[in-house]
């Protein structure tokens, strides 16, 4: 019976040491350990190229080699005959291996030594199971039923907000994932902003990650999954995405990004539609080796369907066919009482502070300022997404396919702060503004 790489992908994760045997042109054999092996497909592997050593010299002279891997669950050994094809020194594959290697380096305290020079691509020629005193693996349940239940739950959501709210409780129930966040891409700024999180002391809604910054940013930059299962010590990829809150009047205030203090495993998968990145789904765990190839596959599928559903809701919320509001919308007769809420707006960065505490910035900040000014001027509380999209003062992109996610972000930030300002949906493509306190609106220059 022929063997397939997919049957023992966990053996490629480096939990147990792997080795490669190469031969020089003169027939001299060399055996060395491997830091990282990446499954590409049933016929190809990628091996990390870190050192200009004997292995490298041999493989350039003679492209044929053998790789020995051990399955962490059964201790079964597999000998893989391979042929070297090429080396990639940039791009998605290189970045995936570089991120994973950073985790391995931190695990061994050798970050300065484990420097990736390239990703070596090999063609698989043959696979042989080596006789050993292997113990049988317990039967692993298929993830397909759980994946189907996740898809079914998400498909029943009737709004973008409901979809985002359902994501992580569903992942926790069906896949046992207890910590994570989902982020959307703002193409204008080249940053991702957090829409929702799960399992942390603070939600971090509105926190940002730059493209290429940490596991999340690299995943977004190369639009490819990044999975790290060796993280005994916090490494550069983890440190890069930790944020601290800025001072209330700092030029660039930020919301702290949530996260585990000592994550042992991290996985980020892109959310893309038609090849265009829309965001990132990120999960982490305090356990070593928490995320298998199967979990990566499942989350990649979930990310695709989540993105498609969210785009569907955005198209509905921001459709050109949304009805305009009547020319005159009656003012709200909601009671406004208590102390005045001071709202400070910095027009240069569209940054909003509530009672000197940072709330939000960018397009979402500009939207909130418009709504509050309209309310203060004439008591207006009902708005349409269409008018927001067409308002030139808001600076929305011409193709504002993420207006709905910006509104969800704004709604969640207001709910989290609970200062007496709320946004709710008032029907298809309509927003309702609720203000419970008198407003003291202050507009300043650049923040």
UniProtKB/TrEMBL annotation:
Q: Where is the GAF domain?
A: 172-303
Q: Which domain of life is it from?
A: Bacteria
Query: A Pfam family in this protein?
Result: GAF_2
Know the name of this protein?
GAF domain-containing protein
Annotated organism of origin:
Elstera cyanobacteriorum
């Amino acid at each position: 019976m022929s063997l397939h790489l997919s049957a023992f992908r966990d053996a490629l994760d480096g939990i147990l040491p792997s080795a490669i045997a190469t031969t020089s042109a003169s027939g001299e054999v060399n055996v060395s350990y491997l830091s990282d092996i990446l499954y590409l497909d049933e016929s190809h592997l990628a091996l990390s190229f870190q050192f200009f050593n004997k292995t490298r010299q041999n493989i350039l002279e003679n492209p044929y080699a053998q790789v020995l891997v051990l399955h962490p669950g059964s201790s079964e050994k597999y000998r893989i005959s391979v042929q070297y094809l090429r080396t990639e020194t940039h791009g998605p594959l290189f970045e995936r291996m570089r991120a994973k290697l950073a985790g391995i380096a931190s695990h061994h305290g050798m970050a300065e030594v484990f420097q990736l020079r390239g990703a070596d691509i090999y063609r698989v020629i043959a696979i042989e199971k080596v006789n050993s005193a292997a113990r049988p693996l317990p039967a692993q349940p298929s993830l397909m039923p759980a994946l189907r239940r996740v898809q079914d739950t998400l498909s029943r959501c009737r709004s973008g907000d409901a979809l985002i709210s359902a994501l992580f409780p569903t992942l926790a129930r069906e896949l046992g994932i207890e910590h994570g966040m989902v982020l959307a891409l703002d193409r204008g700024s080249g940053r991702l902003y957090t829409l929702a999180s799960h399992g942390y002391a603070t939600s971090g809604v509105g926190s940002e990650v730059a493209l290429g910054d940490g596991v999340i940013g690299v995943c977004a930059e190369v639009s490819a999954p990044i999975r790290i299962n060796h993280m005994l010590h916090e490494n550069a990829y983890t440190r890069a995405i930790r944020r601290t809150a800025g001072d209330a009047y700092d030029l660039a205030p930020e919301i702290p990004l949530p996260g585990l203090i000592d994550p042992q495993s991290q996985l980020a998968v892109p959310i893309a539609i038609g090849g265009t990145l829309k965001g990132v789904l990120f999960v982490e765990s305090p356990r070593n080796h928490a995320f298998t190839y199967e979990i990566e596959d499942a989350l990649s599928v979930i990310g695709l369907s989540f993105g498609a559903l969210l785009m569907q809701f955005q198209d509905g919320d921001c459709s050109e066919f949304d009805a305009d509001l009547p020319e005159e919308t009656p003012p709200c007769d909601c009671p406004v009482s208590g102390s005045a809420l001071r709202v400070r707006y910095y027009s240069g960065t569209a940054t909003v502070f509530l009672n000197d505490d940072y709330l939000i910035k960018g397009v979402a900040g500009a939207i909130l300022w418009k709504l509050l000014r309209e309310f203060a001027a004439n008591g207006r509380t009902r708005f349409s997404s269409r008018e927001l999209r067409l308002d030139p003062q808001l600076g929305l992109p011409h193709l504002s396919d993420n207006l709905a996610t910006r509104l969800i972000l704004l709604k969640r930030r207001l709910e989290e702060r609970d200062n007496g300002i709320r946004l709710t949906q008032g029907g298809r493509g309509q927003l309702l503004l609720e203000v419970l306190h008198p407003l003291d609106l202050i507009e300043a220059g650049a923040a």
